[in-house]
Amino acid sequence: MPRSPAATNRHSSFKSTTMTSSSRLPRLATTLAGWGGAIALTFGALHLGTSSASEAAVKIPAPAADETASANGTQTAVFAGGCFWGVQGVFQRVQGVSQAVSGYSGGKAATAKYEMVGSGLTGHAEAVKVTYDPKKVSYGTLLQIYFSVAHDPTQLNRQDPDVGPQYRSAVFYGDATQKATTEKYIAQLDAAKVYRSKIVTQVVPLDAFYAAEDYHQDYLTLNPTQGYIARFDLPKIANLKTMFPQQYRAEPALVMAKAGKAQQ
Please, what's the b/e burial string for 167-188 (b: 16 or more CB within 10 A of its CB; e: otherwise)? Predict the structure, then answer.
């Protein structure tokens, strides 16, 4: 995922085809939403055999305890796991999720801007705010998807090929029940040794979430053939469909589509 000018050398092979003009994305959202998911799955399947180890999903048990089980009404959760394009794309395709917004958490409002966050000096992590119905999908299930499909929780301050604290693995909890459920689940997974290395995911309080620029929203759906997306993110969508067939939804809950309807 191409970053700020100081970091583009990490991803030079992907840069030339990465960004679609920000002014075009909102207009493209409605047109591409219908067939974007199908194309994504096709390319995801093609790249499953060549994706790096960080994109290989790990089959893990569900949480043994979920302190949030009694939650009622619409709930939110904030997850960071590398580039937000892929994390957003995964959660947008989970049944019970009404919205998944790419953004920044961990820093101040004044520095919640893409080029500044890309420096790795703002304290922010690229994160995704997930809005969901706990009667349709539990917080525990979201955690299971997050730890198994959305990213590799054993990588410290990186998700291949992205390097830096802005790509750290972190759960920004909104209350004590989310905190307890997340910490117990991490302990459960470490004890079961489902990964070769220890989980390094931070469990920290959510101070604020700042939505990312419009051109980052729905990026996976709008750009399914872009090099970075095809190699590193589409396999996650294919893994979600395979490993969580009951939770998978073919039509993603798009951010810009909702924004467009609100303006009509």
Answer: bbbbbbbbeebbbbbbebbbeb
